[in-house]
Amino acid sequence: MTQASPTNAALAARDLQHIWHPCTQMHDHERVPMVPIVRGEGPWLIDADGRRYLDGISSWWTNLFGHANPRIAAGLAEQAKTLEHVIFAGFTHPVAIELAEQLVRITPPGLEKVFFADNGSAAVEVALKMSFHYWLNQGHGEKTRFIALTGSYHGETLGALSVSDVALYRKTYAPLLLTPILAPSPDAYEGEPGESPEQTAARRLEAMRDLLERHAGETCAVIVEPLVQCAGGMRMYHPSYLSGLRALCDRYDVHLIADEIAVGFGRTGTMFACEQAGIAPDFLCLSKGLTGGTLPLSAVLTTPRVYEAFYAEYNAGKAFLHSHSYTGNPLACRAALETLAIFRDEPVLERNRGLAAHLARQLEPLRDHPHVADVRQHGMIAAVELVADKSTRRPFPAEERRGLHVYLHGLQNGALLRPLGNIIYFMPPYVVNEGDIDHLVRVAREGIALAVKNGA
Protein backbone atom coordinates (compact mmCIF):
# COMPACT_ATOMS: atom_id res chain seq x y z
CA MET A 1 0.00 0.00 0.00
CA THR A 2 1.59 3.29 -1.10
CA GLN A 3 1.62 6.34 1.11
CA ALA A 4 -0.38 9.30 -0.18
CA SER A 5 1.67 12.27 -1.42
CA PRO A 6 1.63 15.27 0.92
CA THR A 7 -0.73 18.11 0.04
CA ASN A 8 0.05 21.83 -0.19
CA ALA A 9 -1.61 22.37 3.16
CA ALA A 10 0.38 19.63 4.87
CA LEU A 11 3.73 20.80 3.50
CA ALA A 12 2.98 24.44 4.26
CA ALA A 13 2.10 23.59 7.86
CA ARG A 14 5.37 21.67 8.31
CA ASP A 15 7.35 24.50 6.71
CA LEU A 16 5.90 27.17 8.96
CA GLN A 17 6.81 25.19 12.05
CA HIS A 18 10.54 25.67 11.49
CA ILE A 19 11.59 27.64 8.41
CA TRP A 20 12.26 31.38 8.35
CA HIS A 21 12.04 32.59 4.75
CA PRO A 22 14.01 35.42 3.10
CA CYS A 23 12.57 38.85 2.24
CA THR A 24 9.42 37.91 4.14
CA GLN A 25 7.42 39.16 7.09
CA MET A 26 6.44 35.68 8.24
CA HIS A 27 3.23 37.06 9.75
CA ASP A 28 2.01 37.59 6.17
CA HIS A 29 1.59 33.85 5.81
CA GLU A 30 -1.46 34.01 8.02
CA ARG A 31 -3.22 35.21 4.85
CA VAL A 32 -0.71 34.89 2.00
CA PRO A 33 -0.37 31.26 0.90
CA MET A 34 2.89 29.36 1.23
CA VAL A 35 3.32 27.50 -2.07
CA PRO A 36 5.12 24.14 -1.82
CA ILE A 37 6.74 23.33 -5.18
CA VAL A 38 7.52 19.66 -5.77
CA ARG A 39 8.51 19.66 -9.43
CA GLY A 40 9.60 21.85 -12.32
CA GLU A 41 9.15 21.43 -16.06
CA GLY A 42 10.72 24.00 -18.35
CA PRO A 43 9.26 27.41 -17.43
CA TRP A 44 6.61 25.82 -15.19
CA LEU A 45 6.56 25.06 -11.45
CA ILE A 46 4.15 22.44 -10.09
CA ASP A 47 2.91 22.42 -6.51
CA ALA A 48 1.96 19.48 -4.31
CA ASP A 49 -1.70 19.74 -5.34
CA GLY A 50 -0.82 19.64 -9.03
CA ARG A 51 -1.33 23.34 -9.79
CA ARG A 52 1.04 24.84 -12.37
CA TYR A 53 2.66 28.28 -12.25
CA LEU A 54 4.50 29.92 -15.13
CA ASP A 55 7.73 31.23 -13.61
CA GLY A 56 7.61 34.83 -14.81
CA ILE A 57 10.59 35.90 -12.68
CA SER A 58 12.95 32.95 -13.32
CA SER A 59 12.91 32.08 -9.60
CA TRP A 60 14.67 35.29 -8.52
CA TRP A 61 16.28 35.86 -11.92
CA THR A 62 18.38 32.70 -11.89
CA ASN A 63 16.74 30.24 -14.25
CA LEU A 64 17.69 30.53 -17.91
CA PHE A 65 16.84 27.25 -19.62
CA GLY A 66 13.96 25.88 -17.61
CA HIS A 67 13.53 23.87 -14.45
CA ALA A 68 14.93 20.34 -14.43
CA ASN A 69 16.75 21.05 -17.68
CA PRO A 70 17.75 17.60 -18.97
CA ARG A 71 21.15 18.65 -20.34
CA ILE A 72 22.24 20.33 -17.11
CA ALA A 73 20.77 17.49 -15.01
CA ALA A 74 22.69 14.88 -17.02
CA GLY A 75 25.94 16.79 -16.59
CA LEU A 76 25.38 17.05 -12.85
CA ALA A 77 24.62 13.33 -12.54
CA GLU A 78 27.81 12.47 -14.41
CA GLN A 79 29.89 14.89 -12.34
CA ALA A 80 28.47 13.60 -9.05
CA LYS A 81 29.83 10.16 -9.87
CA THR A 82 33.32 11.57 -10.42
CA LEU A 83 34.03 14.44 -7.99
CA GLU A 84 31.54 16.33 -5.85
CA HIS A 85 33.94 18.71 -4.07
CA VAL A 86 37.58 19.35 -3.26
CA ILE A 87 39.42 22.06 -1.35
CA PHE A 88 40.32 24.85 -3.78
CA ALA A 89 43.43 26.11 -1.96
CA GLY A 90 46.44 24.33 -3.41
CA PHE A 91 44.14 22.00 -5.39
CA THR A 92 42.24 22.39 -8.62
CA HIS A 93 40.13 20.25 -10.95
CA PRO A 94 39.33 20.08 -14.68
CA VAL A 95 35.83 21.56 -14.62
CA ALA A 96 36.92 24.73 -12.79
CA ILE A 97 39.83 25.15 -15.18
CA GLU A 98 37.61 24.75 -18.23
CA LEU A 99 34.97 27.08 -16.81
CA ALA A 100 37.56 29.79 -16.15
CA GLU A 101 38.90 29.43 -19.70
CA GLN A 102 35.43 29.73 -21.19
CA LEU A 103 34.48 32.73 -19.06
CA VAL A 104 37.64 34.55 -20.14
CA ARG A 105 36.80 33.71 -23.75
CA ILE A 106 33.24 35.11 -23.71
CA THR A 107 33.51 38.13 -21.39
CA PRO A 108 34.75 41.60 -22.43
CA PRO A 109 38.43 41.73 -23.43
CA GLY A 110 41.14 42.16 -20.82
CA LEU A 111 39.42 40.14 -18.09
CA GLU A 112 41.83 37.24 -17.80
CA LYS A 113 41.78 36.22 -14.14
CA VAL A 114 38.85 34.44 -12.45
CA PHE A 115 38.11 34.25 -8.73
CA PHE A 116 35.27 31.86 -7.79
CA ALA A 117 32.83 32.34 -4.91
CA ASP A 118 29.43 30.86 -4.13
CA ASN A 119 26.75 33.57 -4.55
CA GLY A 120 26.19 37.04 -5.91
CA SER A 121 26.68 38.93 -2.66
CA ALA A 122 29.96 37.10 -2.14
CA ALA A 123 31.10 38.12 -5.61
CA VAL A 124 30.47 41.77 -4.75
CA GLU A 125 32.34 41.34 -1.47
CA VAL A 126 35.29 39.89 -3.40
CA ALA A 127 35.33 42.78 -5.88
CA LEU A 128 35.14 45.42 -3.14
CA LYS A 129 37.90 43.83 -1.08
CA MET A 130 40.06 43.17 -4.12
CA SER A 131 39.78 46.77 -5.28
CA PHE A 132 40.63 48.16 -1.83
CA HIS A 133 43.48 45.68 -1.40
CA TYR A 134 44.87 46.51 -4.84
CA TRP A 135 45.23 50.16 -3.88
CA LEU A 136 46.69 49.20 -0.49
CA ASN A 137 49.32 47.04 -2.19
CA GLN A 138 50.08 49.97 -4.50
CA GLY A 139 50.76 52.25 -1.56
CA HIS A 140 47.41 54.06 -1.63
CA GLY A 141 45.86 53.05 1.67
CA GLU A 142 43.96 56.34 1.69
CA LYS A 143 41.60 54.90 -0.90
CA THR A 144 38.90 53.37 1.28
CA ARG A 145 35.56 54.48 -0.19
CA PHE A 146 33.25 53.45 -2.99
CA ILE A 147 30.88 55.36 -5.25
CA ALA A 148 27.50 53.76 -5.97
CA LEU A 149 24.36 54.92 -7.72
CA THR A 150 21.19 56.05 -6.01
CA GLY A 151 18.66 53.24 -6.10
CA SER A 152 21.39 50.63 -6.35
CA TYR A 153 21.29 47.14 -4.89
CA HIS A 154 24.28 44.81 -4.77
CA GLY A 155 23.40 42.18 -2.17
CA GLU A 156 22.75 41.70 1.52
CA THR A 157 26.05 40.80 3.13
CA LEU A 158 27.46 43.81 4.94
CA GLY A 159 29.91 44.94 2.28
CA ALA A 160 27.44 44.50 -0.56
CA LEU A 161 24.73 46.21 1.48
CA SER A 162 27.11 49.08 2.19
CA VAL A 163 27.22 49.98 -1.51
CA SER A 164 23.46 49.58 -1.92
CA ASP A 165 20.96 52.41 -1.66
CA VAL A 166 17.86 50.74 -0.28
CA ALA A 167 16.37 53.00 2.39
CA LEU A 168 14.87 50.27 4.56
CA TYR A 169 18.12 48.30 4.74
CA ARG A 170 20.29 51.34 5.39
CA LYS A 171 17.96 52.60 8.10
CA THR A 172 17.96 49.24 9.86
CA TYR A 173 21.63 48.28 9.55
CA ALA A 174 23.27 51.72 9.35
CA PRO A 175 25.54 51.23 12.40
CA LEU A 176 27.12 48.21 10.70
CA LEU A 177 27.64 49.64 7.22
CA LEU A 178 30.28 51.56 5.33
CA THR A 179 29.06 54.88 3.96
CA PRO A 180 29.26 55.06 0.18
CA ILE A 181 29.38 58.20 -1.92
CA LEU A 182 26.12 58.22 -3.87
CA ALA A 183 25.94 59.48 -7.43
CA PRO A 184 22.55 60.21 -9.01
CA SER A 185 21.32 57.31 -11.09
CA PRO A 186 21.08 57.74 -14.88
CA ASP A 187 17.62 56.16 -14.61
CA ALA A 188 15.67 57.29 -17.67
CA TYR A 189 12.45 57.44 -15.62
CA GLU A 190 13.96 60.36 -13.71
CA GLY A 191 14.69 62.32 -16.88
CA GLU A 192 13.60 65.93 -17.25
CA PRO A 193 10.51 66.65 -19.39
CA GLY A 194 11.40 66.19 -23.05
CA GLU A 195 14.79 64.71 -22.22
CA SER A 196 15.86 61.51 -24.03
CA PRO A 197 17.41 58.60 -22.08
CA GLU A 198 20.76 59.46 -23.67
CA GLN A 199 20.48 63.07 -22.54
CA THR A 200 19.61 61.94 -19.01
CA ALA A 201 22.69 59.72 -19.04
CA ALA A 202 24.88 62.62 -20.18
CA ARG A 203 23.54 64.91 -17.45
CA ARG A 204 24.08 62.30 -14.77
CA LEU A 205 27.60 61.64 -16.07
CA GLU A 206 28.39 65.28 -15.30
CA ALA A 207 27.27 64.70 -11.72
CA MET A 208 29.53 61.63 -11.53
CA ARG A 209 32.42 63.68 -12.93
CA ASP A 210 31.92 66.28 -10.22
CA LEU A 211 31.99 63.59 -7.52
CA LEU A 212 35.15 62.03 -8.91
CA GLU A 213 36.78 65.44 -9.16
CA ARG A 214 36.26 65.85 -5.41
CA HIS A 215 36.65 62.29 -4.15
CA ALA A 216 38.89 60.30 -6.51
CA GLY A 217 41.79 60.46 -4.07
CA GLU A 218 39.82 58.52 -1.46
CA THR A 219 37.85 56.28 -3.85
CA CYS A 220 38.69 52.68 -4.68
CA ALA A 221 36.00 52.03 -7.26
CA VAL A 222 32.66 52.96 -8.75
CA ILE A 223 30.19 50.07 -8.69
CA VAL A 224 27.17 49.90 -11.02
CA GLU A 225 24.58 47.47 -12.31
CA PRO A 226 24.95 47.87 -16.09
CA LEU A 227 21.78 49.05 -17.90
CA VAL A 228 19.24 47.81 -15.32
CA GLN A 229 19.11 48.52 -11.58
CA CYS A 230 17.07 45.43 -10.86
CA ALA A 231 16.08 45.27 -7.18
CA GLY A 232 15.93 49.07 -7.09
CA GLY A 233 12.79 48.94 -9.22
CA MET A 234 13.98 47.69 -12.61
CA ARG A 235 15.33 51.18 -13.34
CA MET A 236 16.87 51.30 -16.82
CA TYR A 237 19.34 53.63 -18.48
CA HIS A 238 21.13 54.30 -21.77
CA PRO A 239 24.37 52.40 -22.60
CA SER A 240 26.20 55.69 -23.22
CA TYR A 241 26.38 56.16 -19.46
CA LEU A 242 28.62 53.10 -19.20
CA SER A 243 31.00 54.22 -21.92
CA GLY A 244 31.22 57.67 -20.33
CA LEU A 245 31.73 56.16 -16.90
CA ARG A 246 34.55 53.95 -18.16
CA ALA A 247 36.32 57.05 -19.49
CA LEU A 248 35.82 58.90 -16.19
CA CYS A 249 37.19 56.00 -14.14
CA ASP A 250 40.27 55.90 -16.36
CA ARG A 251 40.72 59.67 -16.12
CA TYR A 252 40.46 59.77 -12.34
CA ASP A 253 42.28 56.48 -11.70
CA VAL A 254 39.55 54.54 -9.92
CA HIS A 255 38.28 51.04 -10.65
CA LEU A 256 35.00 50.25 -12.35
CA ILE A 257 33.05 47.30 -10.90
CA ALA A 258 30.27 45.95 -13.12
CA ASP A 259 27.72 43.96 -11.15
CA GLU A 260 26.21 41.77 -13.88
CA ILE A 261 24.90 39.20 -11.41
CA ALA A 262 21.32 39.74 -12.56
CA VAL A 263 21.80 41.22 -16.04
CA GLY A 264 24.50 38.94 -17.43
CA PHE A 265 24.08 35.89 -19.64
CA GLY A 266 21.72 37.33 -22.21
CA ARG A 267 19.18 39.14 -20.04
CA THR A 268 19.54 42.54 -21.73
CA GLY A 269 19.86 41.28 -25.30
CA THR A 270 23.62 40.74 -25.41
CA MET A 271 25.60 38.11 -23.54
CA PHE A 272 26.78 40.80 -21.11
CA ALA A 273 25.23 44.22 -20.69
CA CYS A 274 28.64 45.94 -20.86
CA GLU A 275 28.90 44.85 -24.49
CA GLN A 276 26.21 47.37 -25.46
CA ALA A 277 28.56 50.17 -24.40
CA GLY A 278 31.66 48.51 -25.83
CA ILE A 279 33.48 48.59 -22.49
CA ALA A 280 35.32 46.25 -20.16
CA PRO A 281 35.21 46.88 -16.40
CA ASP A 282 38.09 46.26 -14.02
CA PHE A 283 35.93 43.75 -12.14
CA LEU A 284 33.00 41.80 -13.56
CA CYS A 285 30.73 40.09 -11.00
CA LEU A 286 28.70 37.11 -12.26
CA SER A 287 26.27 34.69 -10.61
CA LYS A 288 22.56 33.74 -10.90
CA GLY A 289 22.32 32.62 -14.55
CA LEU A 290 25.91 31.35 -14.50
CA THR A 291 24.66 27.85 -13.65
CA GLY A 292 21.33 28.24 -15.40
CA GLY A 293 19.74 28.63 -11.98
CA THR A 294 20.76 25.14 -10.88
CA LEU A 295 23.37 25.59 -8.12
CA PRO A 296 24.98 28.51 -6.25
CA LEU A 297 28.14 29.77 -7.93
CA SER A 298 29.66 33.15 -8.64
CA ALA A 299 32.76 34.48 -10.32
CA VAL A 300 34.69 37.72 -10.32
CA LEU A 301 36.75 38.38 -13.42
CA THR A 302 39.53 40.95 -13.34
CA THR A 303 42.61 42.09 -15.21
CA PRO A 304 46.25 40.98 -15.17
CA ARG A 305 47.10 44.43 -13.80
CA VAL A 306 45.01 43.81 -10.70
CA TYR A 307 46.33 40.26 -10.32
CA GLU A 308 49.95 41.38 -10.54
CA ALA A 309 49.49 43.80 -7.63
CA PHE A 310 49.00 40.75 -5.37
CA TYR A 311 51.68 38.52 -6.93
CA ALA A 312 54.74 38.59 -4.65
CA GLU A 313 56.87 36.54 -2.29
CA TYR A 314 54.88 35.19 0.66
CA ASN A 315 56.63 37.42 3.21
CA ALA A 316 55.62 40.54 1.29
CA GLY A 317 52.14 40.04 2.78
CA LYS A 318 50.32 40.98 -0.42
CA ALA A 319 48.16 37.87 -0.93
CA PHE A 320 44.42 38.39 -1.36
CA LEU A 321 42.55 37.36 1.78
CA HIS A 322 39.25 35.75 0.89
CA SER A 323 37.93 32.19 0.81
CA HIS A 324 34.77 30.10 0.80
CA SER A 325 34.52 26.41 1.71
CA TYR A 326 32.74 25.69 -1.56
CA THR A 327 34.95 27.82 -3.80
CA GLY A 328 35.09 26.29 -7.29
CA ASN A 329 32.66 23.51 -6.38
CA PRO A 330 32.87 20.89 -9.17
CA LEU A 331 29.11 20.27 -9.33
CA ALA A 332 28.35 23.97 -9.70
CA CYS A 333 31.14 24.42 -12.23
CA ARG A 334 29.76 21.53 -14.28
CA ALA A 335 26.30 23.09 -14.25
CA ALA A 336 27.89 26.32 -15.49
CA LEU A 337 29.72 24.50 -18.28
CA GLU A 338 26.49 22.87 -19.44
CA THR A 339 24.79 26.28 -19.35
CA LEU A 340 27.50 27.84 -21.51
CA ALA A 341 27.27 24.86 -23.87
CA ILE A 342 23.59 25.63 -24.47
CA PHE A 343 24.52 29.19 -25.39
CA ARG A 344 27.18 27.82 -27.73
CA ASP A 345 25.05 25.16 -29.40
CA GLU A 346 21.69 26.93 -29.69
CA PRO A 347 20.63 30.35 -31.06
CA VAL A 348 19.69 31.61 -27.60
CA LEU A 349 20.28 35.33 -28.07
CA GLU A 350 18.61 35.35 -31.48
CA ARG A 351 15.55 33.62 -30.06
CA ASN A 352 15.51 35.99 -27.10
CA ARG A 353 15.35 38.97 -29.43
CA GLY A 354 12.17 37.57 -30.94
CA LEU A 355 10.66 36.85 -27.54
CA ALA A 356 11.61 40.31 -26.27
CA ALA A 357 9.95 41.94 -29.26
CA HIS A 358 6.79 39.93 -28.65
CA LEU A 359 6.81 40.90 -24.97
CA ALA A 360 7.14 44.56 -25.97
CA ARG A 361 4.13 44.30 -28.29
CA GLN A 362 2.01 42.67 -25.60
CA LEU A 363 2.90 45.33 -23.03
CA GLU A 364 2.37 48.28 -25.37
CA PRO A 365 -1.36 48.76 -24.56
CA LEU A 366 -0.49 49.26 -20.89
CA ARG A 367 1.19 52.57 -21.77
CA ASP A 368 -2.29 54.08 -22.03
CA HIS A 369 -3.48 52.71 -18.69
CA PRO A 370 -4.52 55.57 -16.37
CA HIS A 371 -2.39 54.17 -13.52
CA VAL A 372 0.72 53.20 -15.52
CA ALA A 373 3.44 55.85 -15.61
CA ASP A 374 6.02 53.86 -17.54
CA VAL A 375 6.58 50.66 -19.47
CA ARG A 376 10.29 49.98 -19.95
CA GLN A 377 12.37 47.13 -21.30
CA HIS A 378 15.91 45.96 -21.95
CA GLY A 379 15.84 42.61 -23.74
CA MET A 380 14.24 39.92 -21.60
CA ILE A 381 13.62 42.31 -18.69
CA ALA A 382 10.47 44.46 -18.75
CA ALA A 383 8.73 46.52 -16.08
CA VAL A 384 5.44 48.36 -15.60
CA GLU A 385 5.34 51.24 -13.11
CA LEU A 386 2.02 51.63 -11.27
CA VAL A 387 1.18 55.06 -9.88
CA ALA A 388 -1.73 56.72 -8.13
CA ASP A 389 -1.63 59.71 -10.50
CA LYS A 390 -0.32 59.34 -14.04
CA SER A 391 0.01 63.07 -14.75
CA THR A 392 2.23 63.76 -11.73
CA ARG A 393 3.67 60.23 -11.36
CA ARG A 394 2.60 60.31 -7.72
CA PRO A 395 3.12 56.76 -6.41
CA PHE A 396 0.66 54.70 -4.46
CA PRO A 397 1.57 54.74 -0.76
CA ALA A 398 3.91 51.81 -0.09
CA GLU A 399 1.83 50.67 2.88
CA GLU A 400 -1.11 49.95 0.57
CA ARG A 401 0.92 47.14 -1.03
CA ARG A 402 -0.88 47.33 -4.35
CA GLY A 403 1.58 44.96 -5.97
CA LEU A 404 0.49 42.22 -3.60
CA HIS A 405 -2.82 42.01 -5.51
CA VAL A 406 -0.91 41.22 -8.69
CA TYR A 407 1.09 38.51 -6.92
CA LEU A 408 -1.98 36.86 -5.40
CA HIS A 409 -3.94 37.08 -8.64
CA GLY A 410 -1.01 35.46 -10.40
CA LEU A 411 -0.96 32.51 -8.01
CA GLN A 412 -4.67 32.01 -8.53
CA ASN A 413 -4.22 32.03 -12.29
CA GLY A 414 -1.10 29.99 -12.91
CA ALA A 415 1.60 32.67 -12.94
CA LEU A 416 4.47 33.55 -10.62
CA LEU A 417 4.69 37.36 -10.71
CA ARG A 418 6.38 38.85 -7.65
CA PRO A 419 6.32 42.65 -7.96
CA LEU A 420 8.89 45.01 -6.52
CA GLY A 421 6.51 47.19 -4.55
CA ASN A 422 4.28 48.79 -7.19
CA ILE A 423 6.50 47.76 -10.10
CA ILE A 424 5.30 44.73 -12.03
CA TYR A 425 8.16 43.14 -13.89
CA PHE A 426 8.79 40.25 -16.24
CA MET A 427 12.02 38.26 -16.36
CA PRO A 428 11.02 34.80 -17.62
CA PRO A 429 13.27 31.84 -18.48
CA TYR A 430 14.48 31.78 -22.07
CA VAL A 431 12.47 28.61 -22.80
CA VAL A 432 9.10 30.38 -22.74
CA ASN A 433 7.15 30.68 -25.98
CA GLU A 434 4.93 33.49 -27.24
CA GLY A 435 1.86 31.83 -25.75
CA ASP A 436 3.55 31.77 -22.34
CA ILE A 437 4.32 35.48 -22.63
CA ASP A 438 0.71 36.16 -23.59
CA HIS A 439 -0.40 34.29 -20.46
CA LEU A 440 1.95 36.25 -18.19
CA VAL A 441 0.89 39.62 -19.59
CA ARG A 442 -2.82 38.76 -19.50
CA VAL A 443 -2.63 37.68 -15.86
CA ALA A 444 -0.59 40.78 -15.01
CA ARG A 445 -3.11 43.09 -16.69
CA GLU A 446 -5.94 41.47 -14.73
CA GLY A 447 -3.93 41.80 -11.53
CA ILE A 448 -3.17 45.43 -12.24
CA ALA A 449 -6.90 46.12 -12.67
CA LEU A 450 -7.50 44.65 -9.22
CA ALA A 451 -4.49 46.40 -7.68
CA VAL A 452 -5.47 49.92 -8.74
CA LYS A 453 -9.04 49.40 -7.59
CA ASN A 454 -8.35 47.96 -4.14
CA GLY A 455 -5.78 48.59 -1.44
CA ALA A 456 -4.24 45.55 0.27
UniProtKB/TrEMBL annotation:
Swiss-Prot/TrEMBL catalytic activity: (8S)-8-amino-7-oxononanoate + S-adenosyl-L-methionine = S-adenosyl-4-methylsulfanyl-2-oxobutanoate + (7R,8S)-7,8-diammoniononanoate
Major localisation: cytoplasm
Binding, pyridoxal 5'-phosphate: 120-121, 259, 324-325
KW S-adenosyl-L-methionine (keyword) present: yes
Keyword Transferase: yes
Subcellular location: Cytoplasm
Record-listed E.C. numbers: 2.6.1.62
Pathway recorded for this protein: Cofactor biosynthesis; biotin biosynthesis; 7,8-diaminononanoate from 8-amino-7-oxononanoate (SAM route): step 1/1
Cofactor(s) listed in the protein's UniProt record: pyridoxal 5'-phosphate
Gene3D superfamilies for this protein: Aspartate Aminotransferase, domain 1 (3.90.1150.10), Type I PLP-dependent aspartate aminotransferase-like (Major domain) (3.40.640.10)
Residues that bear N6-(pyridoxal phosphate)lysine: 288
Binding site for substrate: 60, 153, 288, 323, 418
Gene Ontology molecular functions: adenosylmethionine-8-amino-7-oxononanoate transaminase activity
Entries under InterPro entries matching the protein: Aminotrans_3 (IPR005814), Aminotrans_3_PPA_site (IPR049704), BioA (IPR005815), PyrdxlP-dep_Trfase (IPR015424), PyrdxlP-dep_Trfase_major (IPR015421), PyrdxlP-dep_Trfase_small (IPR015422)
Protein keywords: Aminotransferase, Biotin biosynthesis, Cytoplasm, Pyridoxal phosphate, S-adenosyl-L-methionine, Transferase
Residues carrying the site annotation Participates in the substrate recognition with KAPA and in a stacking interaction with the adenine ring of SAM: 23
Quaternary organization: Homodimer.
HAMAP family (UniProt xref): BioA
Function in brief: Catalyzes the transfer of the alpha-amino group from S-adenosyl-L-methionine (SAM) to 7-keto-8-aminopelargonic acid (KAPA) to form 7,8-diaminopelargonic acid (DAPA). It is the only aminotransferase known to utilize SAM as an amino donor.
Family: Belongs to the class-III pyridoxal-phosphate-dependent aminotransferase family. BioA subfamily.
Protein name, UniProt field: Adenosylmethionine-8-amino-7-oxononanoate aminotransferase
Lineage: Bacteria, Pseudomonadati, Pseudomonadota, Gammaproteobacteria, Lysobacterales
Gene designation per UniProt: bioA
